Each structure stands twice: as structure tokens, then as C-alpha cells.
């Protein structure tokens, strides 16, 4: 027997917190009875659990990484008809969701799963799983500029936590440079905004690792399943990163 919100999250309905809201909102039934108490337990193999009238499926858990091409949107549908990541996952029968997002123009390693708990663990800001990007930027940033990124830089939504930053390649005419940057947060357009803040806008952005999982030579537009060892290592890393990484300093909240 497990708590209802855990069963729901594992079935990929939503995060545990959202599932609790669904229970409190009277949307969940167990064997035909509406349940609103958060401590309620059920047996996913025996009990019929429905959310808004639809039975939840105890699907096999799948974990995939996709080398997302640029020009593809990280969401389940797009009203403008642009390409979406599931267009590249035709061989995956289960309905999987991206863990975090990559911008339309960002390419590289994107994780997808139907395991809501796993997704929640990895994308929760307090777990700080490191992500490494190769950023091709306009011009060649000075060491001082890169030091600002290493120390943490003020963006409009607060200070970033320290990043690891390294030159990878510099164009002989100094028109552009390739920089590797590892960040421990996942704010919206964070890497692009960090380079904009030192006046070197990003021309191309590719995520090459997530935790210790590497994109390596996975071809663009191709996915593969993670191995059990890779899944375990990501969980371990998220749990151990929880207490070890420095927080970015946010500006003091204004009282209203
Ligand atoms: N940072 C960005 O700016 N864009 C991404 O897609 C990911 C990280």
C-alpha cells in the first residue's frame, strides 16, 4: 500500500505536490469513492484509481535522452505547428515528458520520462544537478568577463550561483569563441542571459551533459534509453548535490 499522491506521481500524473492538490480538490477516486484525505493509501495493482474520471495507468517507467535539434519546441504540443520533441520519439510507446526545458534554438541533451518522481527530483531547484553547455558566443570574452560568470552574476531574477567556465575554442579573427559553461540551476534562458550580461551574446547553444550523463556521439534527432546504472547515478547525484552546492544570492525581497 502506498500513499495516493505517490502512486499518482509515479504514474506520471504530475508532481507529488500537484497530486496533493488534485486529491484535496476532490478529483481523485479510489474504487469509485472520492478521496480528499492526503494520508490515504491504496494498492496500485488492486485498486482502481481515477483522476477526473480517467483511470491512471501503471505504465512501465521509461527514461530516455534525446539529442534535441535546434528549431524544436520542448512541449507536448504547439499551436503554431512547429516541431515538438515527441516528433523524435516515435519508437517510445509511453507518454513521456521533458525534465526541464531547452529553448527552441538550443540543441543537445534533453531527458524525458514518465516517472513524475524522478522528474521532480531532477528538476527541483534545490537539488542543483550540474548541466554543461557549449556556448558559441559573439566576440571573445576577456578573462574578467568569464570570472564574473565564475563568481556569480546579477541577472534580473537575482544572482546566479557560481558557474564553471572554460575556453574551448577561439576564432583566429576574434569574431567568436566557444566556451564551456556548467551551471547548477535551471532558470529560464539562463546561459543566454549570463553571456548577454557580459556583452557576448550566444550564437549557438548545445547542452552536452546532465549530471554525469554525457551526450557523447548520440546523433542529432536520435534518442536512446538510459541504463539502470545511469538512472541510479542521476538520483544519487541529485540527492548528494542537495546539501553541497552554494545558493545564488537573490536580491532582498521588497516589502509591499
Ligand atoms: N540556458 C539557456 O539560455 N537556454 C537553454 O535552453 C538552456 C539553458
From TrEMBL:
Gene3D superfamilies in UniProt: Alpha-L RNA-binding motif, Pseudouridine synthase I, catalytic domain, N-terminal subdomain, RNA-binding S4 domain
EC number in record: 5.4.99.-
SUPFAM superfamilies in alphabetical order: Alpha-L RNA-binding motif (SSF55174), Pseudouridine synthase (SSF55120)
Domain of life, source organism: Bacteria
Alphabetical list of SMART domains matching this protein: S4 (SM00363)
Keywords carried by this UniProt record: Isomerase, RNA-binding
PROSITE patterns linked to this entry: PSI_RSU, S4
Protein name: Pseudouridine synthase
Amino acid at each position: 500500500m502506498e500513499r495516493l499522491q505517490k502512486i499518482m506521481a509515479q504514474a506520471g500524473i504530475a508532481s507529488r505536490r500537484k497530486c496533493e492538490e488534485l486529491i484535496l480538490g476532490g478529483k481523485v477516486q479510489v474504487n469509485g469513492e472520492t478521496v480528499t484525505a492526503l494520508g490515504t493509501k491504496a494498492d496500485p495493482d488492486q485498486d482502481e484509481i481515477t483522476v477526473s474520471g480517467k483511470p491512471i495507468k501503471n505504465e512501465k517507467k521509461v527514461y530516455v535522452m534525446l539529442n534535441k535539434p535546434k528549431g524544436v519546441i520542448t512541449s507536448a504540443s504547439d499551436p503554431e505547428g512547429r516541431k515538438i520533441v515527441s516528433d523524435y520519439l516515435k519508437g517510445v510507446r509511453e507518454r513521456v515528458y521533458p525534465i526541464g526545458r531547452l529553448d527552441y534554438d538550443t540543441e543537445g541533451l534533453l531527458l524525458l520520462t514518465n516517472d513524475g518522481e524522478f522528474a521532480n527530483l531532477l528538476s527541483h531547484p534545490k537539488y542543483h544537478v550540474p548541466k554543461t553547455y557549449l556556448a558559441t558566443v559573439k566576440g571573445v570574452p576577456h578573462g574578467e568577463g568569464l570570472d564574473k560568470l565564475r563568481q556569480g552574476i546579477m541577472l534580473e531574477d537575482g544572482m546566479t550561483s557560481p558557474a564553471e567556465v572554460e575556453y574551448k575554442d577561439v576564432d583566429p579573427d576574434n569574431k567568436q569563441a566557444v566556451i564551456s559553461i556548467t551551471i547548477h540551476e535551471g532558470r529560464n534562458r539562463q546561459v543566454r542571459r549570463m553571456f548577454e550580461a557580459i556583452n557576448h551574446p550566444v550564437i549557438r547553444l548545445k547542452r552536452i551533459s546532465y549530471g554525469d550523463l554525457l551526450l557523447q556521439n548520440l546523433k542529432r534527432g536520435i534518442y536512446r534509453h538510459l541504463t539502470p546504472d545511469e538512472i541510479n547515478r542521476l538520483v544519487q547525484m541529485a540527492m548528494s548535490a542537495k546539501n553541497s552546492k552554494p545558493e545564488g544570492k537573490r536580491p532582498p525581497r521588497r516589502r509591499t
